[in-house]
């Protein structure tokens, strides 16, 4: 390619490029002399303020007024002319479009200036920033969910550990009893019929005890696993149903029941809630001193969006140090002779209340009765 052809091609490129290009001249002997435009391509002319200018004495700052600080621009140009290199001058906004300006040394007294429209680039950058902010937010949500799930799994694991320990321990007790009595029956041939009968009765009692335990464990497992769809439930109806069932299971035992009127509607599950209230009521009439007629009082207390249902008894009460323990599976504070049971009831109650998104607690003093409460979200 000869010089003329090369010159022609460069001129074509200069004329047709989308970027604005200008060539500036500097009087390098005078550091205060501002750069002058000596050439501009059509794209630069389009951006330039003075459309009909005399290139001989047109200052850059006149062509592009307000695009850059005149003094700093002049200093930058002198420095580039002296030391070479290029410089990005930052972004300028004109008529809602954004431009990036770059100046670079051409010769020791000429500076090139390129102005490129970066509006689309900026929009894309904003979109990318928006997307990465969304991604970060999602990542944070995922992290939080993973942490929550891990904590839940850890809790379930711990629960499972103590559950397996308690189950094996408590289920083995009746099995050991059955084994022992069966061995006595087999080994000792000198027993009377009455003695043999007594051992057989003990074996039967142990088997019945084991059956009760298994039934309660199944109930616990059911409440832990069953699908629970939360819905508005009228506590009036729940307490009425539980009271009816209590009458059937009390087996003629005398007790008094005081139920407040107009109990509110809460968010829960009807059958699960009846099971919870029936369990608390059953305990309330069971754990009373001999000779005392049980008195159960039931009422609610509403606080903002929550409602507390109280089940209060006039029973033997529970010392503070046991008030957390009794909600664990198989935890019992009394012998089977004084108060029979499996120690699963309150574990079921607590699990059920948690599954309904609620809380459970109690207020009690030894010898002064107990007041159990469950707290649930009120229905609107
Ligand atoms: P269970 O009734 O089969 O013994 P629970 O899980 O229902 O098992 O109760 C655990 C223990 O908590 C009971 O054995 C008893 O010692 C104590 N308890 C529960 N409810 C009451 C109550 N209303 N008054 C006094 N003690 C109670």
Automatic annotation (TrEMBL):
Enzyme Commission number: 2.7.13.3
Domain of life: Bacteria
Catalytic activity: ATP + protein L-histidine = ADP + protein N-phospho-L-histidine
Keyword line: Kinase, Phosphoprotein, Transferase
MF annotations from Gene Ontology: kinase activity
Any Pfam family the entry gives: HisKA
InterPro entries per the UniProt record, alphabetical: BphY/WalK/GraS-like (IPR050351), HATPase_C_sf (IPR036890), HATPase_dom (IPR003594), His_kinase_dom (IPR005467), HisK_dim/P_dom (IPR003661), HisK_dim/P_sf (IPR036097), Sig_transdc_His_kin-like_C (IPR004358)
Histidine kinase domain location: 166-380
Gene3D superfamilies referenced in this protein's UniProt entry, alphabetically: 1.10.287.130, Histidine kinase-like ATPase, C-terminal domain
UniProt key word Iron-sulfur: no
Keyword Phosphoprotein: yes
Name of the protein: histidine kinase
Lineage: Bacteria, Pseudomonadati, Thermodesulfobacteriota, Desulfuromonadia, Geobacterales
